[in-house]
Structures are given as C-alpha cells and as structure tokens.
Specification:
With about 230 residues, the chain is an alpha/beta fold. It has one domain (about 5-100, about 155-230): Rossmann fold, CATH 3.40.50. The chain has six helices and ten strands; from the N terminus they run E-E-E-H-E-E-H-E-H-H-E-H-E-H-E-E. The strands form two sheets. The protein has a six-stranded mixed beta sheet. The protein has a four-stranded antiparallel beta sheet with strand order 2-1-4-5, with helices on one face.
C-alpha cells in the first residue's frame, strides 16, 4: 500500500482567556491508502483537533500535514479549497445537514460547489444519478425527497456519509460518527463504513468507544496530545 496521508510533529495550542491550552504536542501519524484507522482517546485528548488539522479545516502552530506526499501548507487558497472539496470527505457527529434541502439536494451540495453554475448545468444528470446511487447503497433510496428533520438520527448520518462521498474523495475523515446515536444505530453506521472500506475507501475515524475502534485495521491512541500507541 502507498502512503496517502501523513503528519509530522504537529503542535496546536488554543487560548482560553489568559490561559494557553496545549492540545497537540508533537503528533506523528501515517495512513496508508485503503486503511481504516481509528483514533481513540478521552475527551480533551486532541482527537478532533488532529482530525481538523489532517483535513485542513485548521492549521497547526507548527509541523506539517502531507497528502499524497505533498505538504498541505504549500497549497494555494484555490488548491486548498479543491483539497477540502474533492480529496477529503468529512463526516461529523452532528451531521450538519441543511434542513431546507431534501436528502438528495444535501447530497449534491459538494458536487454543486465543485463545478460552478455552467459546469453544474452540464453535469447535473450524471451527478444526480451518482447521488441517487450513493443514497441507495446506504439504504435511503426511498428517502430522497425527505427533509433532514423527517429522518432518524441514523438516517441523517447516512445522508452525511453520502454527501461526504459525493465527489469520490480518496480520504474520508469521520469525527465521532456514532457518538450521537444509540448502540444499535451506531453499529449500522459502522457497518456502512466497513463496507465502504472493503471497497477501497481510506478512512480515519475519531472515537472514544474502544469497541468501535476495535473494528478498524489499526488503532492510534492519543493521550494528552501525544500518540501513546499505534
């Protein structure tokens, strides 16, 4: 397997009033293409911060993130936007769906952002077919015209996964994707992620649940901002 993502000596500190909170203290990480990696740790250990840095949603104070061998910090603003839109898919604990849009429309948002008006008009048919296929695979073929508030938590998370995969990103980052769900529904989400991984999708997932982490290929343990074991 080839390395798709790596981080070297990541440090990140936040200010809370007069206090400085050191969240990451020199994290090194490498992810191979096709892996399913779980990052585990207690609340406040820096898991979500690490995921945000890996996906370029935030910048480290020092250190570097590399995607397919290229340093993300060297990307231009336009290249960085393309990276977030096309190379990385994000799944969050609280879904972040738009209530005014249908399930199908929510799924199509990344494709619309990637193509612009003219490109969207040309590719709308193919993109809509892909969105329908993704939603069908995730068991939502009969929910295309529903709004998010008409869905269960598990269904909303499946829409979020479909949206994250819309532009076929090589990397999927999932931040506590089962954290807002009951155990049975969360198990269904995990099984969906496992099925995607079997088809070759690279996944880095943050979780506090050791049982969920145990289903991944590899577990990275984050303790007080430092990798304790891999």
């Amino acid at each position: 397997m080839s390395k798709i993502l790596s981080a070297r000596k990541l440090f990140k500190t936040y200010r809370l009033g007069a206090a400085r909170i050191e969240v990451l203290k020199g994290v090194d990480l490498a992810v191979e293409a096709g892996q399913f990696v779980a990052v585990v740790g207690a609340s406040g250990s820096g898991k979500s911060t690490l995921l945000h840095l890996l996906g370029a949603l935030d910048r480290p104070d020092s250190g570097q993130v590399f995607f397919e061998g290229r340093p993300v910090e060297g990307f231009s603003a336009a290249r960085l936007n393309r990276f977030r839109n096309r190379s990385v898919g994000f799944v969050f604990q609280f879904y972040h769906l738009l209530d005014e849009l249908t399930v199908l429309e929510n799924t199509l948002v990344p494709a619309m952002a990637a193509t612009g008006v003219v490109g969207w008009l040309r590719s709308r048919g193919a993109q809509t077919a892909r969105a329908r296929a993704l939603l069908g695979r995730l068991g939502l073929g009969d929910r295309l015209r529903h709004k998010p508030y008409q869905l269960s938590g598990g269904e909303r998370q499946r829409v979020a996964i479909a949206r994250a995969l819309m532009n076929a990103p090589p990397l999927l980052l999932a931040d506590e994707p089962t954290g807002n769900l009951d155990s049975e529904t969360g198990r269904g989400i995990l099984e969906a992620l496992e099925a995607l991984n079997r088809d070759g999708q690279t996944i880095v997932m943050v979780t506090h649940d050791e049982r969920i982490a145990g289903r991944a290929h590899r577990v990275v343990r984050l303790v007080d901002g430092v990798i304790a074991a891999t």
